[in-house]
């Protein structure tokens, strides 16, 4: 790439990191749709979809003002994620591993990343990281015009994003507080992190590569339970 091309790429990266809330929502719409086409969605009458519907009954039905859209991907991978447009996806591998209380804890954590602005940051970073291949010209007017492959690439970068230690801890607290406010069992957060700790290192999933380590996160949640707050 020549010097002019590099300057253009740098400008696009800057624009990507300056995406507005509405632009991030639009990119999330396209990214989630691309993932839904690539993945195997559990049909509404499947045991997984029916169980998820039961689990989320007491969970938030909106995420930052956007209607929450919960669906299951049929895959052995242990993961879950949420985007700024209210798209929340849970993998059947995670559901096989977790009981209902643990599942609510993990979902609350993913919603926390959205509510606290972490998911917006991750989408901006994912867009900037894709600028050389033309994905992140978004702020220049390409939002809503991404190709299927571009939207899929953007989604993959978002899903594999690594949150900081402070962001992970803040999302844990968000989930804990949400469960507390809704009078739901919080011990699931502790046992969920204990289970993830046992799996740590066996997958490249961002969920299993969390910082701080899952054992420390489990201990911190237990400490909050013991403190009664």
From TrEMBL:
Q: Which residues form the Peptidase M48 domain?
A: 50-224
Presence of keyword Membrane: no
Compositionally biased intervals (Basic and acidic residues): 217-229
Keyword Protease set for record = yes
* Compositional bias per record (Low complexity), positions renumbered to this chain: 200-213
Q: How is the cofactor bound?
A: Binds 1 zinc ion per subunit.
Record-level Gene Ontology MF annotations = metallopeptidase activity
Could you say which protein family the record assigns here? Answer: Belongs to the peptidase M48 family.
Protein name as it appears in the record: M48 family metalloprotease
Q: Which organism is it from?
A: Variovorax humicola
């Amino acid at each position: 790439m020549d010097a002019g091309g590099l300057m253009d790429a740098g400008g696009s990266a800057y624009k990507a990191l300056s995406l507005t809330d509405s632009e991030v929502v639009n990119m999330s719409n396209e990214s989630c749709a691309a993932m839904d086409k690539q993945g195997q969605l559990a049909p509404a009458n499947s045991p997984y979809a029916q169980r998820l519907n039961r689990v989320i009954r007491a969970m938030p039905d909106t995420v930052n003002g956007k209607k929450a859209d919960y669906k299951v991907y049929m895959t052995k991978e242990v993961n879950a994620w949420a985007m700024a447009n209210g798209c929340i996806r849970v993998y059947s591998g995670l559901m096989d591993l977790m009981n209902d209380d643990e599942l609510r804890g993990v979902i609350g954590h993913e919603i926390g990343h959205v509510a606290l602005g972490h998911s917006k940051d991750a989408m901006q970073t994912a867009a900037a990281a894709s600028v050389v291949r033309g994905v992140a010209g978004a702020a220049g007017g390409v939002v809503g015009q991404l190709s299927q492959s571009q939207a899929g690439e953007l989604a993959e970068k978002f899903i594999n994003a690594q949150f900081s230690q402070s962001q992970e801890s803040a999302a844990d607290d968000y989930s804990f507080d949400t469960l507390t406010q809704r009078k739901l069992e919080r011990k699931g957060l502790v046992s969920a992190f204990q289970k993830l700790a046992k799996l740590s290192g066996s997958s490249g999933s961002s969920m299993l590569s969390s910082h701080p380590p899952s054992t420390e996160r489990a201990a911190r949640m237990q400490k909050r339970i013991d403190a009664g707050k």
